[in-house]
Each structure stands twice: as structure tokens, then as C-alpha cells.
């Protein structure tokens, strides 16, 4: 079966949803997601989203992003992200996103490696607030259809032009979907790692498919480890103890209950320090104390973290919690230009799955939601300006996709191998 739409967006996280909202009503947009819409990392973001607070903060915000990225960032991407940030926040507010305010003024918090508070937030559930509101607005659009439990398993392409995707649905039925433009919004790679804060179905499929079709990737060995996730012996996704907890004053202690590090160091540096300490202490975690914040602040500012700690048997208002580093974010991805275009014609990539170089070697906290939205809008603008139509009059062989399990494993292997190869190439 062959289906035709104007635009396919693969992924229904913040990047995909925001991009879909930029499309006018006369464009038929199909969005697909591997699982349910709520199961994307965008719904998990706790800390917040950065914004250029005022012109005076520009240089400092730019420098913080560059320093965190070890100055390997693409300066033009950083500039574009910061310059468009206020517009994106206004878009979000117009879609109904509720950021914390006091007396009608937005409140800003601070996280590691930021030299000033410039992060907007909603309790400790910022990603859920943003993604839910975007999803609600998308549901109001007649031109956008979301298919859950539908997985992209390949691209349809010829002579470096993308004509659509091959998708497998919930009943394991495979079909070809043709489109004028395809947008990868497939998120990160946490599913490839044993310990990660990401959903396990995020396995870098867009990267594997890109490798298969010679679409350029960039910096795919740049993996961010989050220094503080709640330590647990249980299997499954690691629960994040947001950086804003440390931004608001939480302290780290070794096994003798002594402080051993500046808690607001960039993530990669802090991760190293924690690992060194765990090695010295022969432990699998270090302690984090929120106690000095006081019970009222903890419960009001971090209700979700408070509930989860209580569920795991720790009362953060009275005692330390055990934390340990885990895979968290992917700075690399499918290489894109400043318009979010990949090296294949009619194929774009946005959000965590893409790499425009904005994060360099290490992402500054709370820059990723912003980056996802800025470059999703940029992609939509470019696609609408080009508006080229494509036709492909040939049969597509679907038989070769019958063995999904093998294909899935093959894709994972391809990405891991390439990450390893890039590490040695460095
Ligand atoms: C615990 C946690 C906390 C975080 N906190 C913050 C924060 O405070 N601030 C911040 O800026 N960032 C934060 N981040 C990072 C941020 O959430 C992500 O970088 C961002 O949400 C990525 O959005 P996305 O739309 O690119 O991907 P996602 O939201 O992950 O969405 C990916 C989508 O792609 C779909 N998909 C993948 N492969 C396929 C396929 N083959 N076929 C079909 N669909 C597919 C998935 O099902 C999903 O719908 C956090 C991340 C985590 C995990």
C-alpha cells in the first residue's frame, strides 16, 4: 500500500509537535511515533528552557554556551538560537504554556555552568507542560494527523533525494508513505545504553538510516552523561535529579559526608569529579542533600522529584539521596545546516536527532528544548519557502522489511559501531 502526504514528521516530541504547528492548513502533515505521544523525552524535561532575558545578558549567555561546549560549537547556530529565543517563548505562551510567574513577571532559575538565572520553568515538569500544550494545539489542527505505535524503518530515496519513508504500524504491517518533505524528529540515543535517563525506544534510528543512505552525520561520539540521576539497583530508565536542584543550592557529599566539588561545574566536568570520588570511596553513588532548602521549598519547587524520592524510600526534606551519573543527552546527530537541512535533498532533521553544532562537545543545561524549537521553526519556514513537489512512479519493494527484529538489531549495531569508530578517529 502506498500513501501520499505533503510532509512527514518522524517523532512527536517537542521538536516534531512545534514544527507541525508551523505548517499551514493546506499542507497535509503526517506525524508518526514509535510509541504513545507521551513517551518522548520532551515530556521528561524537568529543569526548564533557556531564554535571552535581556540584551545585557547576550554576551554572557553566548559565552556560557560556548564554554560548556568546549568552544567546539558552531557560533552561527548559537547566535541564531539565542536571538530567536524570545520569539519562541512568546510562541509557547501563545500556545498556552504556563511558565512560573510572580506579580505578572516571569521567574528565572539557574542551572550548572550558567552565570546568571535565565531559565524559564514550570514546577519541575517543564517538558511535560510544554509538550502537553503543543500536543493539545496539534490536536486542534485538521491538517495534522498523528499515528502512534508506527515506526520509520527506512527512507524512500533515489539519487540523494528523499521521497518518503517506509513505516511499520502496530500490527506490523509495512507500508510506503510518499511525501514532498520528510523531517526527522526522532530524539536521542539513550536506548543504546544500559543506564540512561531516556526512553529505551529512542535508539538513534534516524542515524542508522542515514548511515545506510550516506547522509552525513556529525559529532556522534559526543554523548552527555548527566552527573546526578537517582541511584537504583532496579532495571530501566534512570530518574533524573535535575541540575536546577543544584542550581537552587543542593550539595554533594562523599561517603564521609564531606563536600568534594563545586556543584555548579559544567556537566561533563562534574561527572568526572563524581566518578573519581566514587572510585576513591569504592561506592556506586555519592550523596546529594536538598535538606537546607527546607521542606516547603522542596515540595513546592520540585514536587515531582520529591514524590519520586519518597517512592524510592528517601525523604529529601530530611536526608541525603544517592545519585550517580547516567547517559542523558546526545550532542551529535544527523548533520544539518542553519536551515535544518540534511545532506539529502527534501530531508530535514530537528531536535536531539540533528546536529547543527549548537552544543559543541557538551550541552549547556536547558539549551536543548530551546534548540529543538528554534530549529524546528527554521525547518518549517525553509520547507514552506521552497514548497517543491515530488513524484515517484515506481514500485517499492516491501518484502525485504519483513524481518524487523533483525533490522532493529542491525540498526543499533550500525550506530554503536560508528560511535566507536568516531571515538578512535578523534
Ligand atoms: C530526564 C530528562 C530531563 C531533561 N531535562 C531537560 C531540561 O530541563 N531542559 C532541556 O532543555 N532539555 C532537557 N532534556 C532534554 C530534552 O528533553 C530533549 O533534548 C528534547 O526534548 C528532545 O526533543 P525531541 O523532540 O528532539 O525528541 P523526543 O522528545 O525524545 O522525541 C523523539 C520522538 O521520536 C520518535 N521516534 C524515534 N525513532 C522513531 C522511529 N524510528 N519511528 C517513529 N518515531 C520515532 C519517538 O517515539 C518520539 O516521539 C531532558 C531530557 C531527559 C531525558
Q: Summed up, what is this model?
A:
With 426 residues, this protein is α/β, with parallel strands linked by helices.
Task: Describe the protein in words.
- The protein folds into two domains: 2-222 and 331-425, FAD/NAD(P)-binding domain (3-Layer(bba) Sandwich), CATH 3.50.50.60; 224-327, Succinate dehydrogenase/fumarate reductase flavoprotein, catalytic domain (Flavocytochrome C3, Chain A, domain 1), CATH 3.90.700.
- With 426 residues, it is an alpha/beta fold.
- Strand 1, helix 1 (14-21) and strand 2 (29-32) form a beta-alpha-beta unit.
- The chain is 32% helix and 20% strand.
- Strands 1, 2, 7, 8, 9, 10 and 17 form a seven-stranded mixed sheet that branches.
- It has helices at 14-21, 58-68, 75-94, 126-139, 205-212, 243-247, 267-281, 295-301, 303-311, 368-386, 404-425, and strands at residues 2-10, 29-32, 49-50, 101-102, 105-106, 119-120, 144-147, 151-158, 161-168, 174-184, 217-218, 223-230, 251-253, 286-289, 321-330, 333-335, 347-349, 354-355.
- Helix 2 packs across helix 3 (75-94), helix 3 packs across helix 10 (368-386) and helix 8 (295-301) crosses helix 9.
- The mean pLDDT is 95.
- It binds flavin-adenine dinucleotide (FAD).
- The site of flavin-adenine dinucleotide has 42 residues, from helix 1, helix 4, strand 8 and helix 10.
- Flavin-adenine dinucleotide is lined by residues 10-16, 32-35, 40-42, 44-49, 126-127, 151-152, 185-188, 197-198, 201-202, 205, 240, 329, 351-353, 366, 368-369, 372.
Please outline the helices and strands.
Layout: E1 2-10, H1 14-21, E2 29-32, E3 49-50, H2 58-68, H3 75-94, E4 101-102, E5 105-106, E6 119-120, H4 126-139, E7 144-147, E8 151-158, E9 161-168, E10 174-184, H5 205-212, E11 217-218, E12 223-230, H6 243-247, E13 251-253, H7 267-281, E14 286-289, H8 295-301, H9 303-311, E15 321-330, E16 333-335, E17 347-349, E18 354-355, H10 368-386, H11 404-425
Parallel strand pairs: 1-2, 1-10, 2-7, 10-17, 16-18
Antiparallel strand pairs: 3-6, 4-5, 8-9, 9-10, 11-16, 12-15, 13-14, 14-15
This protein binds flavin-adenine dinucleotide (FAD).
Flavin-adenine dinucleotide binds at residues 10-16, 32-35, 40-42, 44-49, 126-127, 151-152, 185-188, 197-198, 201-202, 205, 240, 329, 351-353, 366, 368-369, 372.
